[in-house]
Every structure is written in C-alpha cells, then in structure tokens.
Amino acid sequence: xxxxxxxxxxxxxxxxxxxxxxxxxxxxxxxxxxxxxxxxxxxxxxxxxxxxxxxxxxxxxxxxxxxxxxxxxxxxxxxxxxxxxxxxxxxxxxxxxxxxxxxxxxxxxxxxxxxxxxxxxxxxxxxxxxxxxxxxxxxxxxxxxxxxxxxxxxxxxxxxxxxxxxxxxxxxxxxxxxxxxxxxxxxxxxxxxxxxxxxxxxxxxxxxxxxxxxxxxxxxxxxxxxxxxxxxxxxxxxxxxxxxxxxxxxxxxxxxxxxxxxxxxxxxxxxxxxxxxxxxxxxxxxxxxxxxxxxxxxxxxxxx
Length: 304
Ligand SMILES: Nc1ncnc2c1ncn2[C@@H]1O[C@H](COP(=O)(O)OP(=O)(O)OP(=O)(O)O)[C@@H](O)[C@H]1O
Ligand SMILES: [Mg+2]
Prior knowledge:
seven-stranded mixed sheet, elongated, binds magnesium ion
C-alpha cells in the first residue's frame, strides 16, 4: 500500500489517496468583523458577515473591489484572526484556537491559492517537484498524502509533470497551483481569483479542474471571481458588499439575504428607488410582502 509514497497511483485502500473521498468542511460565520489596524486610521474590511457553506459545496464570492472578499478568504484560511464575531470551519472554532493549533489547521485542513499563480509556486521546480515539496511537511508529520501522479492526473496535468514551469502556459501554471493546494487533500479549498488573467479556454480548464476536486475529493471550494461567466456556472454565489453579505445567487437567480440582525440589503438596481433615509412601509397583501417607499407629505403626523 502506498502511504504517501511518491509517484505511485493510489487505490481505494490507500488512506491518503484521493479515491478515499474525504468529507469537505462546512463554513459558518456569525457577525464576523475584521478591522485592519494601522497607524493613523483603521479600516473595517468586514462589518458583520453571516454565512453558512455546507460541507462539500462549491461557492463563488463576488463583489466590488474593496468589498472584503480576500479578507474573508484569509480569515477562513486561518491566516488572520477576526476582530469580532464567530468563525467555525468544520469542527474548528478558529477564534478560540492558539497559534500552534492554527498552524496545524492550516497545514492539515486548508488548501489556499493566492491571487496570481506564480505566488503559489517554486519557479525553478517542475510540477511534480512543486507538489512533492508541498507535501513534505505532511509526510514528515506522518500524515498520509495522495500520490503525486494521482494529483496531477486529477487536475489534468499528467503529461506535464516533468516540464519546467517556465515552459508552461498561464493556464497550466494555475493548474499546478491547484495541484499544490490540494496535494494534502484539504477539506477546504480557498482560491482568490484563480481564473483572472486567463483566456477563455484556460479559464474553462481551471474551472473544470476545480469542479473535479470538489466532486472527486469532496473538498468544499470557496473561490473569489470577478468573471460573470464563471459566476454563472457556479451552483451558488455570495455577493460581498461593504463588508457584509449583499445577496446570493442560486442557479442563475439572484436573492436578497436577511442578516442575523434582521436587516435586508436591497440589490443595487432596487436601491435606486430607495435613497438612504427613505421611510419604507412594509406591507402584506395576499401573502406577499411589499416595500413601499413613502414620499414626503405622505407621512402620517400627530395632526392627521
Ligand atoms: N493589509 C491591509 N491593511 C489595511 N487595509 C487593508 C489590508 N488589506 C485590505 N485592506 C482594506 O480592506 C478592505 C477590503 O479589502 P479586500 O482586499 O478584502 O477586498 P476585495 O474584495 O478582495 O477587493 P479586490 O476585489 O480589489 O481584491 C479594503 O478597503 C482594503 O483597502
Ligand atoms: Mg481581493
């Protein structure tokens, strides 16, 4: 049996093999706040995120620049500590873990693809050696890991395992970054704009490989994207706006989401008719709820 040995295709009995499907980790946040503290001024990047992602789901994070998407991903990865609120990944309550527990969590449970494939790779090594290097800590700690050939196969790079990175296309480099990030069979894969700066063909290959990891390994996948075509192909999207959940998309349909504090962020196109401070009559008719903006002069006063 191959217990993390290199280059030998794993089989179902291999405890570290990809065929031994693992259960993805669920993500749960409640009132999650993150403030970057710097001299002079603080930036509230997240202002109360309530979000549930089921184990094994694949979710896209959307939203304008500066909305807090990367900050959220970084908190999920245990690289930052929240300023306030709760964050639970599977059985791990990240807010209450000490540094060594967080180190262990990052090493054993999380795969992270930072924005820009090159940042995730050692440029002078081949794809095979990049994956082997990424597995070395797990191997020294005695954790079983999948065979390198099996991982490269999974992401569609079987024929490129010994090709120098300098000879790979941008799409292939991103696939190597994906192979590295799943090399220890994480329960949660976090990818920050993995398809940006790729042509359509490469983008589709990377998206297909992410789906493959999600389906075959059972890993929960959370990816940030600005690409509407990528978003349209994901089963679920969550839009982050001003550091909060601004809405959700399911199978192409957009929904507003009620926050834990009872607030309901309205979609941008609806907000046009509801400038800040607008009084809204919340009215039920025939089982349907209506939001009716009240104009000046229509407001009841004590004199009425
Ligand atoms: N290290 C940091 N120090 C101070 N402020 C930061 C830091 N990182 C991010 N910010 C600020 O926090 C807010 C959220 O940033 P974040 O990078 O999470 O947004 P984003 O949604 O990923 O944006 P983009 O789409 O541009 O990548 C922004 O106002 C940003 O300027
Ligand atoms: Mg970002």
